[in-house]
Amino acid sequence: MIARGRIPAAATTVHPGRMSQTSIERLRDYLAQLPPQAQALLMREFERALERGQDTAVATLVLDQLRKIARNTEPEEDDEEDVPGRGGDPARLLYQPLEPFLVDAGIPIRAGQIRRSSLLPIWQWLERDGASAEVREFQDALRRVPDGDGSQIEAMGRKIQGIAADAIFQLTGPGSGDRSKALARVGPPNVIEDLHSIGAVLQVREPLEILNERLPRFLRAFGEAQVAAVTAALNIPELQTPQMLPFALTMVIQRMTAPWQIIRLAIKMAASDDEIRVAATPFGVAVTIALHDLSNLGSMLRTDIKRARFDNFAEHLKALHDGVRGLRTELDLRNDSAWGKQLTSIRADISNALQSELDSVPGRVRRILRQRPEKDIPLGARIDGTEVEEAAALINFVAICRNYASELAINEVTLRTYSDLQQYVERSTESLVQSLRAADRRVLAYRQQQMSAAIRFCELLFGDDYASLMSRAAENAMTGERKPARAGK
Questions:
Q1: Spatial distance between the Cα atoms of 342 and 340, rounded to a whole number of angstroms
Q2: Total Cβ atoms within 10 A of residue 141
Q3: Residue 215 belongs to some domain of the structure
Q4: Is position 232 within any domain?
């Protein structure tokens, strides 16, 4: 549930997954009727909701429509949340070099990343104040370009990128006097935070293109040979500055199968795994980036656990496990250092989240398989199939956690929970088989549903063979001679 705060209560009743195109159009029409100040206020409030880690469904939908209204374009058919302008649009061409570094709303950014939500206000500032004449000239020229003339469009894009970078540095650079009022006209603090990074990337777009061409397409196993190749590719002076190195490393990370391995560049540059020597090199930022990304992954995992979303759980947990283990084994981290404390905190946070969920699983299974006396089962009682599948997903969750329990400090609770589940499901399944022989017809359908759920759980805990055995036992109990129900049931 979204904590309402100052977000309009009516907006929280929207269910994006069930909205038809007509419903979205009605929402957009309503938002379009609001005064510009109200639209801007709504955008800020929903962006803050995302940054607080609240449910993103409603906020993402409304923000998407508000941004499309602000740039006066129709939504794409695939409802993709695009940067301002697509398919030859002026803003799209301007921001093309930023694409590898953009991060959607609600995700904390690090060095080498830029908020996607900052692009629109900065484009509007360029149109209004930063380079208004040049932007108008660019827009007019773009309209006159013949279709298919890609080289001319590319040249125009490079020209406006340079103009935008100069305008940004004129505003943010030294010697520009009192900038507070001018910066306030660009946007809120998070936009200002991205402003200099956007200018820096636009300024070095050509070195970034060279790096993109030099880097291997995939970095599956970041061993010595690939580390050497990437080190050579990064040997571009414009990308070695403290401002640009994180962006260059971000481009490397996007090619990697295991992003945490970016720390191997820092270890190579320091010629040591000692964290003090690694931190003393410019490439020490690679460790900071790896820790930030692991922390974000841990936050995503905790959110998925709270919302019972286990579709990508195994993949995310493996990435987190491998990253924590990699940093602990390949770097000589001190427990009292900033990096050491951050890694310990990541490990503890995910351990606490997993342990809390693990402790709840046996109770969820017992609620489904508990054999109440027949007199306590109401006529027509049924077991919710969704609840069964949720419990099955939780059992699978426990099984996955077993593979990574030791590194994430959940070994004891995982083994105990899995053992408790096996013992309880085995006893309950055997008991349900006996119950089917003597069940009153009034509750027989309910017992059969319990048996189906038990077989589903057996399949996860003991495998297909045991589940098939219990299924045949249940069929025999139903088709064989049924025992009369005992008195008092």
A1: 5
A2: 15
A3: yes
A4: yes
Report the alpha-carbon distance of residue 265 to residue 155 in Å, rounded: 35
Neighbouring residues of 76: CB distance < 8 A, sequence distance ≥ 6 = 82, 86
Instruction: Compute the Cα dihedral for 327, 331, 337, 338 and give only its sign.
Output: negative
Q: Are residues 137 and 198 in the same domain?
A: yes
- As a whole number, the mean pLDDT across the chain is 84
* Residue-level pLDDT at 471: 94
Distance CA 307, CA 177 (A): 49
Query: 128 and 186 share a domain?
Result: yes
As for how many domains the chain has, the answer is 4
Where among 29, 58, 81 does a domain terminate? 81
Give the model confidence (pLDDT) of 456-478 as tens digits: 999 999 999 999 999 999 999 88
| CA dist., res. 469 & res. 252, Å (int) | 52
Query: Could you tell me which residues are beta bridge partners of residue 332?
Result: 274
Q: What is the pLDDT of residue 2?
A: 37
Which stretches of 126-272 are DSSP H helices? 132-144, 150-172, 180-184, 189-203, 205-214, 224-233, 245-253, 263-270
- pLDDT, one tens digit per residue, over 186-206 is 888 999 999 999 999 999 999
For 320, the domain range is 208-333
| 125 and 163 both lie in a single domain | yes
- Determine the Cα–Cα distance for residues 259 and 257; give it in Å rounded to an integer: 6
Q: For the segment 346-380, what is each residue's pLDDT rounded down to a tens digit? A: 999 999 989 989 999 999 999 999 988 888 888 88
Residue 435 lies in a domain: yes
* Backbone Cα Rg of the chain: 29
DSSP 71: T
